[in-house]
Each structure stands twice: as structure tokens, then as C-alpha cells.
Specification:
InterPro entries (chain A): AAA+_ATPase, ABC_transp_ATP-bind, ABC_transporter-like_ATP-bd, ABC_transporter-like_CS, Oligopep_ABC_C, P-loop_NTPase
Shape of chain B: globular
Strand content of chain A: 15-25%
Structural class of chain A: alpha/beta
Family (chain A): Belongs to the ABC transporter superfamily.
Strand content of chain B: 15-25%
GO biological process, one term (chain A): peptide transport
CATH topology of the largest domain in chain B: Rossmann fold
Radius of gyration of chain A: 21 Å
Number of helices of chain A: 9
GO cellular component, one term (chain A): plasma membrane
CATH architecture of the largest domain in chain B: 3-Layer(aba) Sandwich
Strand order of the largest sheet of chain A: 6-7-8-3-9-10-12-11
Order of helices and strands of chain B: EEEHEEHEHHHHEHEHEEHHHHEEH
Oligomer: heterodimer
Strand order of the largest sheet of chain B: 6-7-8-3-9-10-12-11
Number of domains of chain B: 2
CATH class of the domain at 13-25 and 32-235 in chain A: Alpha Beta
Helix content of chain B: 25-40%
Shape of chain A: globular
CATH topology of the domain at 13-25 and 32-235 in chain A: Rossmann fold
Distance between the termini of chain B: 25 Å
CATH superfamily of the largest domain in chain B: P-loop containing nucleotide triphosphate hydrolases
GO molecular function, one term (chain A): ATP binding
Largest sheet of chain A: 8 strands, mixed
Number of helices of chain B: 13
Chain lengths: 334, 342
């Protein structure tokens, strides 16, 4: 379950074997069965690192983000923040740590109270930190400037802003808590490409300036690739591969990652032969989650879910077919 | 991709759409050749969806001007074509699905949630192909197989809710092509789909084009998707076409400064390889319809802007370079094309 020793002796955030299982009843008279939204997810985020999580719908990427934030109780496993186990802290004990971790969502208007002015919205985090008066106003203005907004916004209501500006405001509010970690869940997915580019640049700037750690969750491989130092790939609740971004794009080591990369829209991609069609059926309950769709599945793949194992420095994959030479979408460097 | 001797399937001239005093789109001119895939790209509010809805008469309450003529394909096609704009609804309805179809981002907007897939396909086939009974049943199963439904017979008996998003979009495509249209207008058809499913649906659309010679207007905000599927790219900005180019030329060297900005802002894979992770940005934002000036609408955000002529006169959509005989034209709307160069 534990991978190689991470470069940072104490990662800012460490997820250890996190699982989330729901009981689902398919019919009135059938027994509920356990559905794993996330299964044994282990990963670390170093200080100042941007770690991307990519996956398709149902991959469990948001579940992991919410468990990392302690917004969702894991069924098993542990969350460590700065070396301390926070998995079972009470809400009260958690409160002083909450400001260290802030979350940004896809729809900023859902998290900005429409009845409050921007000044009121931005006062709340400052008050929680005990900052008031002239100091508060100054910090507010500095933070607004940081996210590219002027002092004129303070008197306005959230509804008077565009989607991109609202996302800047929710980032400003998060920054006013002086966080060490930001979990961004599809934070730029609803934005037009030009605005998306600005917010992506802003996240990277904030990381550089404040040594922030960012867990950047998204479905768009190109966006996540541009922003992230490392990328974790999830499929049906399981973390199947984690690697430095370029390395993952050049030489994926898990067949699902290779499938995902090959689907990335780009010029000429559709004139290449389609990947082999594989049935969507259920994988064997104990086997690898991708075995039912995997063109490389061997018998052993249907009996056991492989653990995430090192395949290269800083690169781990949950696949026993280490003999494969899978195709990436960037040329090999060597 | 225009077939030799065949004129365009759709010819749009001076299309304008306004609601009351607010003009959303004006002066749109573009052609869609037989079997050609034209990507209409732009940010929200650029007018790409509004234009296509107007062409199909699906924008009640709007003032629509100009012309959109649907031609039968091939050399033997009708010379005059059918004018769609201003055509009464009762005369438009028989054309929809038969000559031109439209699909949307949300497949459920085109499906009846409480009727089986089979019933919905049979209805379309009765309407557009005059098929019923066994013949309709057989054709419906064929169509579902053609769009890649693994168990078409089983699918016929299901209601849409029982299908995944990707399967629903396939069913919608089956309904759209059932009448054998010459033109499919697809408005963000893969935006709500996972990337592996998106790739399958894009492949399907390309296969249908190859099999049926069906032309397509593919509306998208995603330049990567446009680069994967389009023969031509038409860029809209603030209700106008600002560039119209063969896809290869466009992605190699876009000419209008807004197009350049759009491509520089897109998170391309090449950036990840080069380590140049910082994305290009444009200052400011798209002007709302009531704040469009007399000059170039992009001028306030343009790095190459000159007070004269850019802020004073609207540049025309002009040839970037003299098109070779029969070669596809590359048009851009910029007064300073020559100075800016490639």
C-alpha cells in the first residue's frame, strides 16, 4: 500500500489507503450491494506542488478531493495534514485546521452568497482570522489585486460579475484564509478558453508566489496537464497511475492512461485507427478494474487488483503488464 | 471537400439575428460544401448557436434577416435551392430531419423520456422515409447498429433513461440521420461526454460523413475538438465572422489577431512538451451586443490595434492571400493583415 519514500520527508497532504463505499440497492427487494466510489487511494502532495487528478465521470476524482478536505467521511484509510492524522478529528478540533485547506468549485456562484456584497463576502475569512479594520481593508485590496480585480468591486453583488470574475472572487476569498492547500474541483471547466487561460495562469502564479499546494481535479487532460507538476489517473474509483506530467504523457505505463491519452482530441487523431473495441462489461469482482476493457489483460489480471508499484523514478502504476510499451502522445525524449 | 461540380449544400448570406434593438449576429456569410465539416468556433456569446438556430427556424421571436439557402447536393441538384429564412413553419417542418438535422449537447433535449427508442425511430422513419411495420423495424435496427449500438434489438425496447450519456447521443444521431439529411448541424454534441466517449462519437460522425456524404456544421468552443474533426474553421467573435479558413491553414497560421489569441490561450499538448506552461491571455472581454463600436469589434483587446483605421472602421472579411484556382479561400477580418504577417 505504501509507495516509495516521497521526496519531501513530510508531505503537506498525505492520503493513505482512502476508500469510500456506498451501499446501493438496485431494486426494492434486492440486498444492497457495496459500490466503491474510491478504493484504497494513496497519494502525497508536497508543499508547493500542483498535483492533478484526471478521470472520467465515475472515476472517483471528486470523492478523493472531498475526502482530502474532510468534507466526506472515508470508509477506510487516513488523511494526514502536515504529518498529523486528521481523519477522525471532530468538527471542533478540525476548525483551526480548516483555514489551511480551501476548496474551489466549478460553479462559483453556488458558493458566493447572492445577498452579500463582495466586501461582506471577503470580510468573513478575515474575521475568522481575527483581522479587522484598516488592516482588513488593506489585505482585501491586496488580495483582489492579486487575482486581477480592482477596489471598485467591493460594493457590488456577486450577480453583477461574469463567470470568470466570480471564480477570481472565490479564489480571493480562499486566499484570505491564508491556506497552504487548495483543492480545485473542475475549477475552470465552465469557463471560456480565454478566461480559463487566465485562471490557470493565476493558479500557477499563486503556487509560485506562496508555495501553495494545489490538488487540481479535472476531466480535461490538456488543462490538467498544463497546470500540474504530477498527474494521478483514476478509473472507477482506483488510482491506476501517478507520474510527473511530461513522463505520463510521453510514456504511460497503465493501459487505461494510454486509452485516455489516445482519445485526447487533436489534429489527425481521428484518421488513426480506432483503439480495439472492448466490451464495457463488469470486470471480475477481484480483478483489475480495467481488465474488462483492457486489450492487454492476461488471466492474472482477472484475479487480483494490482497495487500501485514503482515503474520508474517518481512513477507508479497499478498494472502487472510491465512488459508493455504503451504509446504516449508526446515523442519519447530518449 | 466540396465535390467537383457540386455547389454548396448550404449557402448563408448576410445572416442577421436580433432581438428588438439588440443585434446578436450580423453579416454572416459562409458556405458548407457537400460532405464538408465546417467547425463554427467561438466563445460564449459569439453567436454560434444563435446563428444555427436561426437558420433552422428554431428561434421564435427573433428578427432574422439575410438568406440561408439549402441546395440539393450533386451536379444535378436544384439550381435555386430552398430559402430557409422566412419560410413558414409548416413548410420548414418537412425539411427538418429529411434534408437538414440538428443535434444538441444534451441528448435528452431531442428524446422523449417516456417512449422507447424503437417507437421514436419508427415515428421518424414513417415521417421521412415512408416506412412502417417490418420495414421500419428493420431499418431502425440497422440505424442503431450503424451508430455503434452493440445490441440494437435490445436497445429498441428501452427508454432513454436506461442508456448512458454516450449511448443516448448515439441514439440521437441515429434519429438525426434516419431521414438521410444532406446536412447535420451539431451544436456542442460531445461537450457533455467523457473524453473516450467523445472520441468514439467524433469517429462516428466522420464515418457517417464518409458513408453518406453528409455535410456538417459542427459548433464547438473547443479548438482541440475542432482541430480533430473540421475541414474548415469559421471563427465568430461578437456576432461576426472574423476568420474562415481551411483547418490545416488555420491551425498552422491563424491570421486574425483574435484567432491567434484564442489558439494561444488553448492548453495544447505541445506546451507540456516544451515546458512553456504559461498560457496566452487576451486583456478585457467580449463586448456585449449593445457595446459594439463602429470599428473592429476586437480592437479594444487587440495588441496590434491602431486608432486609425482599427477603432474607426469595420474591416471587411477579406482574402488573406490570393486563393489558387479552385483552392479553398482563407478569409480574415483585419485591417492590418499585411503588416502583422504570418
Amino acid at each position: 500500500m505504501t509507495g516509495p519514500v516521497p521526496p519531501d520527508p513530510v508531505p503537506l497532504l498525505s492520503l493513505r489507503g482512502l476508500s469510500k463505499t456506498y451501499l446501493r440497492r438496485d431494486g426494492l427487494l434486492t440486498r444492497p450491494r457495496a459500490v466503491a466510489a474510491a478504493r484504497d487511494v494513496t497519494l502525497d502532495i508536497a508543499r508547493g506542488e500542483v498535483l492533478g487528478i484526471v478521470g472520467e465521470s465515475g472515476s472517483g476524482k471528486s470523492t478523493v478531493g472531498r475526502m482530502a478536505m474532510r468534507l466526506l467521511e472515508p470508509t477506510a484509510g487516513a488523511v494526514h495534514l502536515d504529518g498529523a492524522d486528521i481523519t477522525h478529528l471532530s468538527e471542533q478540533a478540525l476548525r483551526p485546521l480548516r483555514h489551511k485547506m480551501q476548496m474551489i468549485f466549478q460553479d462559483p456562484s453556488a458558493s458566493l452568497n447572492p445577498r452579500q456584497s463582495i466586501r461582506q463576502i471577503l470580510t468573513t475569512p478575515l474575521r475568522l482570522r481575527g483581522v479587522a479594520g484598516a488592516d482588513a481593508t488593506q489585505e482585501m485590496l491586496e488580495t483582489l489585486a492579486l487575482v486581477g480585480l480592482g477596489p471598485d468591486v467591493l460594493g457590488r453583488a456577486p450577480s453583477t460579475f461574469s463567470g470568470g470574475q466570480r471564480q477570481r472572487l472565490s479564489i480571493a476569498r480562499a486566499l484570505l484564509m491564508k491556506p497552504e492547500l487548495i483543492v480545485a474541483d473542475e475549477a475552470v471547466s465552465a469557463l471560456d478558453v480565454c478566461v480559463q487561460a487566465q485562471i490557470v495562469n493565476l493558479f500557477r502564479h499563486l503556487r509560485d508566489r506562496f508555495n501553495l499546494s494545489i490538488l487540481f481535479i479535472g476531466h480535461d487532460l490538456a488543462v490538467v496537464g498544463v497546470i500540474s507538476d504530477r498527474i494521478a489517473v483514476m478509473y472507477r474509483g482506483t488510482l491506476v497511475e501517478i507520474a510527473p506530467t511530461e513522463q505520463l504523457f510521453r510514456r504511460p505505463r497503465h493501459p487505461y492512461t494510454a486509452r485516455l491519452l489516445s482519445a485526447e482530441p487533436r489534429r489527425g487523431v481521428l484518421s488513426a485507427p480506432a483503439p480495439p473495441a472492448t466490451p464495457a462489461g463488469q470486470h471480475a469482482p477481484d480483478g483489475c478494474v480495467f481488465s474488462a476493457r483492457c486489450p492487454h489483460a492476461a488471466d492474472a489480471c482477472r484475479t487480483r487488483q494490482p497495487a500501485l508499484a514503482p515503474v520508474a523514478p517518481g512513477h507508479r502504476a497499478a498494472c502487472i503488464r510491465t512488459d508493455l510499451d504503451l504509446e504516449g502522445i508526446l515523442p519519447h525524449s530518449n | 471537400m466540396t465535390a467537383p461540380g457540386g455547389g454548396p449544400v448550404l449557402r448563408v448570406r448576410k445572416l442577421g439575428v436580433s432581438f428588438g434593438q439588440t443585434s446578436l449576429v450580423d453579416g454572416l456569410n459562409f458556405d458548407v460544401g457537400r460532405g464538408e465539416i465546417v467547425a463554427l468556433v467561438g466563445e460564449s456569446g459569439s453567436g454560434k448557436s444563435v446563428s444555427s438556430l436561426a437558420i433552422l427556424g428554431l428561434l421564435p421571436g427573433a428578427d432574422i434577416s439575410g438568406s440561408a439557402v439549402l441546395h440539393a447536393p450533386g451536379p444535378a441538384g436544384d439550381r435555386d435551392g430552398i430559402e430557409l429564412l422566412g419560410r413558414p413553419e409548416r413548410l420548414l417542418r418537412p425539411l427538418r430531419g429529411k434534408r437538414v438535422s440538428m443535434i444538441f449537447q444534451d441528448p435528452m433535449s431531442s428524446l422523449n423520456p417516456i417512449r422507447t427508442i424503437g417507437a421514436q425511430l419508427r415515428e421518424i422513419l414513417a415521417l421521412h422515409a415512408g416506412l412502417d411495420g417490418r420495414a421500419a423495424e428493420r431499418r431502425a435496427v440497422d440505424l442503431l447498429a450503424q451508430v455503434g449500438i452493440v445490441d440494437p434489438q435490445g436497445c429498441m425496447r428501452l427508454i432513454p433513461q436506461r442508456l448512458s450519456g454516450g449511448m443516448r447521443q448515439r441514439v440521437v444521431i441515429a434519429l438525426a440521420i434516419a431521414g438521410g439529411p444532406d446536412l447535420l448541424i451539431a451544436d456542442e454534441p460531445t461537450t457533455a461526454l467523457d473524453v473516450t466517449i467523445q472520441a468514439q462519437v467524433l469517429r462516428l460522425l466522420l464515418d457517417l460523413r464518409a458513408d453518406m456524404g453528409m455535410a456538417m456544421v459542427f459548433i464547438t468552443h473547443n479548438l482541440a475538438v475542432a482541430s480533430a474533426i473540421a475541414d474548415r474553421v469559421v471563427v465568430l467573435y461578437a456576432g461576426q465572422i472574423v476568420e474562415d479558413a481551411p483547418a490545416a491553414a488555420f491551425f498552422a497560421a491563424p491570421r486574425m489577431p483574435y484567432s491567434r489569441g484564442l489558439l494561444a490561450a488553448a492548453p495544447g499538448l505541445d506546451r507540456i512538451a516544451s515546458g512553456a506552461r504559461r498560457l496566452g491571455t487576451l486583456p478585457g472581454q467580449v463586448p456585449p451586443p449593445d457595446e459594439r463600436g463602429a470599428g473592429c469589434r476586437f480592437a479594444p483587446r487587440c495588441a496590434w490595434m491602431m486608432p486609425d483605421p482599427c477603432a474607426r472602421r469595420m474591416p471587411a472579411l477579406e482574402h488573406v492571400a490570393p486563393a489558387g484556382p479552385g483552392g479553398p479561400p482563407h478569409l480574415a477580418r483585419c485591417a492590418r493583415l499585411e503588416e502583422i504577417g504570418e
